[in-house]
Amino acid sequence: MGSAGDIPCLGMMLPDAKHDVVEDFGEKLKVLPTNDQIKELQTILRDRNTTRHDFKFYADRLIRLVVEESLNQLPFSKCVVTTPTGAKYQGLQYQKGNCGVSIVRSGEAMEQGLRDCCRSIRIGKILVESDADTHEARVVYARFPEDISKRKVLLMYPIMSTGNTVIKAVAVLKEHNVAEENIILSNLFCTPFAAKSVMAAYPQMQILTSEVHHVAPNHFGQKYFGTD
Ligand SMILES: O=P(O)(O)OC[C@H]1O[C@H](OP(=O)(O)OP(=O)(O)O)[C@H](O)[C@@H]1O
C-alpha cells in the first residue's frame, strides 16, 4: 500500500479535476467500480516519480483486478456439486471455449494476470504499429488459435489513447471471422476520445476498463518493460 507521500501527486492532478467527470458510455463500456485502493493504484501508475520496480508491481495488481472482472463477462453455466457432507450445492461453472489475445507490446503485460486465473488458456498475439506522425495503425504480426472464430476472445491492451491500435486489432480479429459480440476488450486506461472511437467502430464489443480519463498514461509499455 502507498504512504502519505503519495498525496502531493494527487494534488498535481487537481487542475485537471474537472475532466475527471466520467461520462456514461452505455452498457457496452463497463468501468471497474472505483474505490480508494483502485484510485491509489491508478495514482501510482500515473505518477512520473514511480520507480520501474514499483510500476510493474502496482500495474500487475491493477491488471489482476481488471482481468478478474473481464472474466466475469464470459459465460458461466449452472452446475450442481456434492459437498464433503453429501449435500448438494447449486453453483456455476466457467464455460470452455474462450481464449486471450494480447496486443504487443503493452498487452503482453496482461498475459500473466490472465494465466494466473486460467492456467492453460490459449493466448494469441497481434502486433500493430502506429505511425509516429500520422498515428495510423498497421498490422505487423498476428497469430491466433486456429478455431478462434468459435471462441469468445478476451482482447488485452492496457492503454487506449486515440483507440487506433485497438480498432486495427479488432479489424484483424473480424478478418478471422470472430464476431464482434464475442470480443471482450480488457483495458486499464481509456480516454473519452478512444472510448467514443472504439465504440463507434465496434458497437457490439464489450469493453472493460479501470478508468476513463482525458490523460492517457502513454508511458505504460516503456515503464513496465523498461525498454524504449
Ligand atoms: O490508442 P492508441 O492511440 O493507438 O495508443 C495506444 C498506446 O500505443 C502507444 O504506445 P506504444 O506504441 O508504446 O505501444 P506499446 O506499449 O504497446 O508498444 C500509445 O502511446 C498508447 O500508449
Structure description:
The protein is an alpha/beta fold and 228 residues long. It has one domain: Rossmann fold (3-Layer(aba) Sandwich). The chain contains seven helices and twelve strands. It has helices at residues 7-13, 36-46, 52-71, 111-117, 164-175, 192-201, 220-225, and strands spanning 29-31, 76-82, 88-94, 98-104, 123-130, 137-143, 152-156, 159-160, 183-186, 189-190, 206-209, 211-212. The strands form three sheets. Strands 1-11-9-7-4-5-6 form a seven-stranded mixed β-sheet, with helices on both faces. The radius of gyration is 18 Å and the shape is globular. The two termini are 28 Å apart. The protein binds 1-O-pyrophosphono-5-O-phosphono-alpha-D-ribofuranose.
